[in-house]
């Protein structure tokens, strides 16, 4: 869009402005509900915080990402009704919102300014992203040019999310006279994301001599978690304000004008550990998925192992123990230690805990299969049958009581197919889907540092599926410290087999792991969705064919 409304500052040598960052959680598709949420937040920001401008996240009217809802014929009508409602709401403060705007047969991801009951400016996102989890070019056209809009008498440059990651939009706005850049975001979480955002904003603000208000969405949508972490940088590239991640709220920041637009610095939050951040992301992912989809409770199989122990801790923290049911389903290979530890954790967390042996059901199945299995030897078929009986048990409890089944497979296991279709993969949501096994151990330690809920020997004993006598995970897999590094190179960083070997790994281990990853795409395609915490999870990030003649190598 072309520059509009740019003007010099008022003649006063000093002017104060209060901007409130509305770091809020919106429900995708609930346009009327989101509209009322915006109105309520704007009014509270004005009455309680004295806001002059309230800045909302990207596509807050529709929620993010709206995906193919954007293709629905009624989308334009509903958005128009929302904008009419927002203009007539008498908010008292100017607002900057994210909304899809259709014009001249094209759809844009837009930032819209409403002040004094009128739309006073709008900006069309110039760089719709089309990588990793993003496919905005499926829906949105590219905007053109900068938009410097006068808001409360101040020339403000508008940008939307990806625009700040690409050279052009901030630079053009600064050149057109903007003294303040407002950037609306729906930037999903991954482990290193906040550090990358800070490095970017520091450079952009310093190089262009402008202050930047970076307002991010918070909450979870399907596999994505939006961590908030909204920030303000001053014109010198210094971080003036940072909002705690994973927290909803209205966060004010004051600006003083004396030739430059300068934010008043606030105390910064303590830097969270990686483990604390990931755990918070998992908690938010479970809470929003369960609540937004209307489930009353969750149920999961508690085996006495570390994966289900961590998943239980996340679920109980996310929903409260009264909404969580843990079920131990022992078999002849289940150790007394597993029974004791599962009961101890369920008791310490105060969740409903039931024990149902699968022995009678297993015997019934084996009796029914005696004739077709005659003359064969025991193998993984009988092991998988145990897992599938447990899956049937959990899904039956889900149907009867309206509980969502949480699965507990971690990223390392899913990568190499160390899981059973229609068994431990049966369920609606996988808490640890993107969490490597080595990180599972670290997260268990972290959660116990908050309060000791996971028995120590669950963390220290060798992992086992307990589907056969004396079974250990590492009997059929490389050690998890090696496996997770190979998986990181291959899955998240796209290294070839030869390149991974060049990093110092054994050729046989590399070839075996890569072969297992490729062979088990068909399993992952049928797995429940789960929370994304890395730059490339098994979901929208990684779209590989099931049927393929591709060979590993260089």
Automatic annotation (TrEMBL):
One of its GO terms (molecular function) is NAD+ synthase (glutamine-hydrolyzing) activity. Deamido-NAD(+) binds at residues 384, 413, 523. Pfam families: CN_hydrolase, NAD_synthase. Residues 17-257 form the CN hydrolase domain. It catalyses: deamido-NAD(+) + L-glutamine + ATP + H2O = L-glutamate + AMP + diphosphate + NAD(+) + H(+). The keyword Nucleotide-binding applies. PROSITE patterns: CN_HYDROLASE, NITRIL_CHT_1. Its EC number is 6.3.5.1. The active site is at 58 (proton acceptor), 58 (proton acceptor), 125 (for glutaminase activity), 161 (nucleophile). Keywords: ATP-binding, Ligase, NAD, Nucleotide-binding. It is an enzyme of class 6 (ligase). ATP binds at residues 301-308, 408. L-glutamine binds at residues 131, 187, 193. In the C-terminal section; belongs to the NAD synthetase family. Catalyzes the ATP-dependent amidation of deamido-NAD to form NAD. Uses L-glutamine as a nitrogen source. NCBIfam families: nadE, PRK13981.1. This is Glutamine-dependent NAD(+) synthetase. The lineage of its organism: Bacteria, Pseudomonadati, Pseudomonadota, Gammaproteobacteria, Pseudomonadales. The gene is nadE.
